Amino acid sequence: MNPRFRRQLIALLTFGAAFGYLEAAVVSYLRLLHEPARERFYPRRPPGELFPLLTPDERRSAGPAQNRIIVIEVGREGATLTMLAALALAAADNVGEWAAAFAVAFGTWDLAFYAGLKLLLGWPASLATWDILFLIPVPWVAPVLAPSLVAGAMITAGIWHLGRGAFGHPVRLAPYHWTGIVLGAAILIVSFTLDYRNVLSGGMPRPFRWGVFGLGLATGTGSYLWAAVNSRTRAHKAALRVAV
Hints:
- The chain has one domain (about 5-244).
- The protein has eight helices and two strands; from the N terminus they run ααααββαααα.
- The relative contact order is 0.12.
- It has about 240 residues and is mainly α.
- Helix 2 packs across helix 3 and helix 6 packs antiparallel against helix 8 (about 210-244).
């Protein structure tokens, strides 16, 4: 294995796994802080169930600490994304490598986060369990399976991209490939946030829009796969010309 590629993988995977566990530990503390207020308003809520969310009026009634926790959580999410992006910047030499390194670190962090929560809290009960993914700028909600699929796709594509570059056969991403990847990501975010008004008002999540999610995942992964196949075909043709 290429030494640089090996160092990149070790750094990205190790950091992502350790950071995921750290995030799980922090969320464990936050859930304990939220629990008294949640039991006050929803005493019959099943253990470990995140929904319904406390409404703004309920948070105000529970005291200023509940609103401070939300502010702290938003800041933590922003710091998490910044740290993952900074790690990717240290591991990359260009924009494509940065995106690939970020994808590997983010995907590993996400999967390790769920593994850590399962270890610490016994949560989620299954891949169908609903989760709050982010709060920026509005709540993102989905069954755990959805972000796990995205994380797996990010890790796979990121490792492939870094590996091809390390061995002298980089994946060339044209503007239309980038457009497809960004569009796919935007559609995924839409699928996670379509129900935000309902959950903010204290409602239970409505059925997840798997069709919208699938469209986003297919658009993003398909655009990258298109670039990867084209790059490999061009490399193969170039090798044949040299051989002739």
